[in-house]
Amino acid sequence: MLESLKEEVLAANVDIERQELAKLTWGNVSGIDRERGLIVIKPSGVPYSKLKIADMVVIDLENRKVEGALRPSVDAITHVLLYRAFPQIGGIVHTHSPCAVAFSQALREIPCLGSTHADHFLGPIPLARVLTPEEIREDYEGNTAKVILERFAGLDPLDMPAVLVAHHAPFIWGRSAREALKNAVALESVADMALKTLALNPAAPLIPEHMLKEHHDRKHGPGARYGQESP
Predict the structure, then answer these.
(1) Closest listed residue to residue 166, CA positions, set 115, 103, 214
(2) Residue 230 has what pLDDT?
(3) Confidence check: pLDDT of 225 > 80
């Protein structure tokens, strides 16, 4: 069942460590088969170097385990609720990459200061609010999704495929697990660039709106002209 999706999710989880987006077991990737309503996700606490395709856990959109001997990631319900709210997405990555986490811990959005950022994200990377003590006690991971979805009211999750969770870390998504990982690499890169830019000039201005839109649209807009046409 779901062998190709399991292979993609396994590869993306292994690449979290290769891309230095998480150390130890601090991150996870999932992918969804929309036709079946089934999600493949990393098992909880298993080192990336030891992961095998048989370790992948399959859950449904009610967060019930369908297949797998191991427990799914503790963030599984966050993934489930994001998939339910964002039908356009097919993969989710959660990392603890250091530069993005620095902004999460500082309770700051990542400002869009230049074209590299604009190529991937249509504006500043949003910051979800701090969870209340009650929200953490009642359902920490479920309410993590709740505050993300609150913040995304009025935002297109494909134009902005990432969010910072206050005092925590980013969640990133895409049309597939592979694309979500690519967006996670981009997020950490632009966070690193923003930190260095702000160190050089704390008053660095945001990219002008017309330049932001041009850079984003030429890759992602209806008339996108970046890359090659599919054969």
Answers:
(1) 103
(2) 62
(3) no
